[in-house]
Amino acid sequence: MDYSQLKSDIDQWAQEIGFSQVGVSDIDLTEAGEHLNRWLAKGFHADMDYMHKHGEKRYHPEQLVSGTVRIISARLNYMDTDVKPYQQALKETQKAAVSRYALGRDYHKLMRNKLKKLAQRIENEVGELGYRVFSDSAPVMEKAIAEKAGLGWIGKHSNVINPKAGSYFFLGEIYTDIPLPTDEAHDFHCGSCTACIPACPTGAIVAPFQIDAGRCISYLTIENQGAIPEHLRSAIGNRIYGCDDCQMVCPWNKFTQKSQESDFSPRQQLDDIELLELFAWTEDEFLKKTEGSPIRRIGYASWQRNLAVALGNAVTEPAIVEALTNKRDSVSDMVKEHIEWALKQHAQ
Q1: Where, in this chain's numbering, is [4Fe-4S] cluster 1 bound (predicted)?
Q2: Where in the chain are the domains?
Q3: pLDDT of 62
């Protein structure tokens, strides 16, 4: 088989399916594994036990999927450049700031469906194919793989940066047993720039390429199921789901490309909506209005917790105090703690 021609065909098929770019890497992730283990040793994974429970499978792809010899890495732009700019949302304290990737449809299924289509196209060409697809859904070192596959480099904020598209894109992988030609790993182009490090509201980027998840707003508002540490609440501002600050200041994002996926356009006006409107949602409304959204997976209690913190950071007005007071005695103890904190902010 002419694997070089097949790789060229895969590039074409990926474009037809809607991917922004694909590349191919080998399965030697030794260096990335060493970086991961140093990070874990420092306790920077907070309570994300899944980061270490799979052991070496993260950096030994052949242990996760037997027979794997190559990884096809794909990226898909997600930014709807027509929405209200994130930096503007941060200035409007009565409104919600939602990480841009979460405004529309949940990317997990969308990415996996596209990856399966690509794998099936390959299978139609070569016959039975050993493969498995992933998109933020298993112990896979997506960023290191993308870097090795030539899709970009890992920036000092730990996100992958592409020189022609910035960093607003999703990643997905096909582990396969076909010995395709590999792409060259991307060179590092952050240079001496450290704009992302001081831009972090909570100081979570403790050093280049080192994120303390326990301080990261994305972790605190999404992965974290418990209380948000009190000393970090004020810095969260109106960020109710994730945080884009380190990407917002990255010079490479001047090259951000508009997503061609209409499913990533905002739902429920989440790019421009009042905190009080979201706080008024009942649990049934939350489940209905976040159906098909990545936001749904945090659950209603974390949603209320995040909104309570944001309302505590908003400019004081009677409607906010009233909403917080009215809900205080009808929520879980965890949420109540954050509502009481928010009320104290408005009593000062």
Answers
A1: 190, 193, 196, 250
A2: 3-92+101-176, 197-254+273-347
A3: 95
